[in-house]
Design a protein that fits this description.
The chain is of the alpha/beta class. It is built from 19 helices and 18 strands.
Length: about 475
């Protein structure tokens, strides 16, 4: 049985800022369920606003205390553990670095996660769990992958590095190599990028295998538009790069069992409409089952394609439709949606912020889900929308292209509506086509039936990871 140590910066149900937490919270469970590997996870122990909540904090067990070398200094490090849903989680405790109000967004983030990486390697030296594979996730674990491959804390240990979003890379000043790392100068080139240190690059340079979260994204990031300056190294390492589509916890996101939604259902259109009527009433929108509800649940940032929405939504909203929006982010987008709600209060409802339970009511109560991303490594929202039979309207990029098949009204195949170019009027065309589909009962029924057959669980993807851990070729 292969022993795997996941190194990551967030994980549900402990703390979450994005899709990375969902992956780290669910994939190890599926991997362990195969009985082919023992996957454990190591995380920072955040304190403060984003900190570990009860009852998890009460369940923590102290494993060891030691000093972690950070350049010429030594930092107090305490390792705690708990077991949740069959997975062992380790937490790295240091109040100087992680006793703050949030997880990220500090001027010393690079230093914080170099400390974390150094502590992970020291834990492997000292602990009883000796992994065969260290699997690092995103830039926060880049240094851990690099140091592991250089120092080999377990003889023969292999490394895997997963890119969840290449846009965020983890930069440090040039002199931080000597100030923070405890490896020889001969390894400097593996960290250096444009006169700085780049922790994402360090992971890519040193990992034995590289994965990312969808096959299409794996191809996209080898190009200048998507590669964020790292496309050259990805081209060089293309033989070791594999795109594995993310799954979701299909037991959690389950329209037949979810207690957050008004009426449970599988593919029943009447029951789906009951959820819509409930949502309309809750949001003080006109309660009419023949009005299609379009939903947007998103971080309000440019990546999510909201500039396209801003160009055409006011024109589209003139139709007999309703729009429900949940999310927050940049003021430009928040203000736009609030303006839209103010101008069309009987058609638009906007909630700034995020509420997990309410988001599921929107998924279950909406007929279509709009996700026109500029880029999308994998995407979680479209997978959840499919689970609740809200038809995705997506741009063909990254994981959106890999998980949503365009509907063909001649063959009745497909699971959503898609468009290719980052163009507002292509989005508008798909929105109008959605109205045609919705008001044509035969097409709409076929789409719902197709969506009900989709399996987005981790089972297939988990087996691909196991093949990588075993060293099997993916060519």
């Amino acid at each position: 049985m292969k022993k795997i140590l996941f190194v990551a910066s967030e994980c549900t149900p402990f703390y979450k800022s994005g899709g990375l937490a969902d992956v780290i919270g669910s994939l190890p469970q599926y991997l362990n369920a195969t009985k082919k590997c023992d996957v454990r996870v190591i995380l920072p122990l955040y304190d403060g606003v984003e900190g570990l909540k009860e009852p998890f904090r009460n369940a923590l067990k102290e494993e060891m205390i030691f000093q972690t070398q950070v350049g010429w200094r030594f930092q107090y490090t305490r390792i705690l553990s708990l077991i949740h849903q069959g997975v062992t989680y380790y937490f790295v405790d240091n109040l100087q670095y992680f006793g703050r109000g949030g997880m990220y967004g500090y001027g010393d983030d690079g230093e914080r996660f170099v400390f974390f990486s150094n502590a992970v390697i020291e834990f492997i030296y000292r602990g009883d769990f000796k992994p065969d594979v260290l699997h690092g996730h995103d830039w926060q674990a880049g240094a851990a992958v690099a140091i592991c491959n250089i120092k080999k804390p377990v003889p023969g240990i292999q490394t895997v590095f997963t890119i969840h979003n290449i846009k965020y890379q983890g930069y440090l000043m040039y002199d931080a190599f000597d100030e923070l790392l405890t490896i020889e100068r001969e390894h400097f080139a593996g960290f250096e990028w444009n006169g700085m240190l780049n922790l994402m690059k360090a992971g890519l340079f040193h990992a034995d295998k590289i994965t990312t979260v969808s096959p299409t994204y794996a191809e996209e990031i080898k190009t200048p538009f998507y590669g964020e300056g790292l496309e050259t190294i990805l081209q060089m390492r293309s033989r070791d790069l594999l795109g594995i589509i993310n799954g979701i916890d299909a037991n959690d996101y389950n329209s037949m069992k979810d207690k957050n939604i008004h009426v449970n259902f599988k593919s029943s259109i009447p029951k789906k409409k009951e959820n819509k009527l409930y949502l309309q009433e809750k949001l003080n929108l006109p309660v009419k089952e023949d009005i299609p509800v379009f939903a947007i649940i998103t971080r309000m940032v440019e990546q999510k394609g909201l500039h396209l929405v801003m160009r055409i939504m006011e024109e589209f909203i003139q139709q007999d439709v309703q729009l429900v929006v949940l999310g927050n982010g940049e003021k430009e987008f928040e203000n736009y949606f609030l303006m839209l709600q103010s101008k069309y209060p009987e058609k638009v409802h906007v909630t700034l912020g995020f509420n997990e339970s309410f988001s599921r009511e929107i998924y279950a109560g909406s007929d279509f889900f709009i996700m026109p991303s500029l880029f999308e490594p994998c995407g979680l929202s479209q997978l959840i929308a499919l689970q609740y039979k809200s038809i995705p309207i997506v741009r063909e990029t990254g994981g959106l292209k890999d998980t949503v098949q365009p509907y063909n009204e001649h063959t009745n195949e497909g699971t959503g509506l898609t468009f290719a170019n980052y163009n507002a009027h292509e989005l508008l065309d798909r929105l109008h086509y959605a109205l045609f589909i919705y008001h044509n009962p035969s097409h709409y029924k076929h789409l719902i039936q197709n969506v009900a057959k989709v399996n987005n669980s981790w089972i297939q993807s988990a087996n691909q990871y196991i093949n990588i851990y075993r060293g099997e070729s993916h060519e």
